[in-house]
Amino acid sequence: MNKLICTLLLFFNTSVFSYSQLYESDLYYLDKNEVLFYKILNWWSTIAHENSTDFCFNDLRVRSNKTLDFNYDKKTKILKISTKEKFADLVSVFENKNRYLQNEYINKNYFKNLKKENINNISIISLKNVSLNEYQKLNKLKKNIAFELEGKILGLLAYSGKASFYSNAEFLRFCPKNKEAFNVSFKLLNIKTKEILIKYFSKNK
């Protein structure tokens, strides 16, 4: 089946996937097209499509679609930013607990003295050495601030049914072997101005 036709059909597919409607808080984009991603996972997981590689190596972007929670401590100067539900829960980003995303970029217009740290959780980030003024400025823009995750689909995991951003795992649906290292990025983004506030990055194989 042609991939484009298949993707369009998924918009109208009424089959019920095991994930709840909570995940509608995240927006999923497959090769720049907004999709109901849980329906794609449902389609790919059926026996009839066990040999399909239609979605292998496709670009997948996920953006949070609800206002993020800000929790600021004046004494420690730590700002915790989180989502109410687990962010991008239809995607597996980390191969294991020892994997992380490296802090690659900090926008000095928002954070002048922010401490660089790596992360292994994309549903909550803790920013250290954030001034009260910086927090107040960001808090005013709260409705425009979002998490954004981007990577390539490297398979469908066997037990969780999630799309994987890494290739070393137990898969239900395999993608062809590829020696290329694929980038994974996670951003704190101003969706109104398109500015990246913070960017985290890694290469997954």
The number of helical runs is 3
C-alpha Rg (nearest Å): 18 Å
Q: Order of strands across the biggest sheet?
A: 2-1-3-9-13-14-7
Order of helices and strands: HEEHEEEEEEHEEEEEE
Specify the overall morphology. Answer: elongated
Uncertain stretches of 5 or more adjacent residues = 4-23
Query: Percentage of helical residues?
Result: 10-25%
Structural class: mainly beta
pLDDT averaged over residues: 87
Largest sheet: 7 strands, antiparallel
Gap between N and C termini: 28 Å
* Strand content range: 35-45%
The count of strands amounts to: 14
Overview of the molecule:
- The structure is a single chain.
- The chain has 205 residues and is mostly beta strands.
- 14% of the residues lie in helices and 35% in strands.
- The chain contains 3 helices and 14 strands.
- The protein has helices at 3-12, 37-45, 132-140; strands at 26-30, 33-35, 59-64, 69-73, 78-82, 91-92, 102-106, 124-128, 145-152, 155-157, 163-164, 171-174, 182-190, 195-204.
- Strands 2-1-3-9-13-14-7 form a 7-stranded antiparallel sheet. A 3-stranded antiparallel sheet has the order 4-5-8, covered by helices on one side. A two-stranded parallel sheet has the order 6-11.
- The longest helix has 10 residues, at 3-12.
- Mean pLDDT is 87; it is low at 4-23.
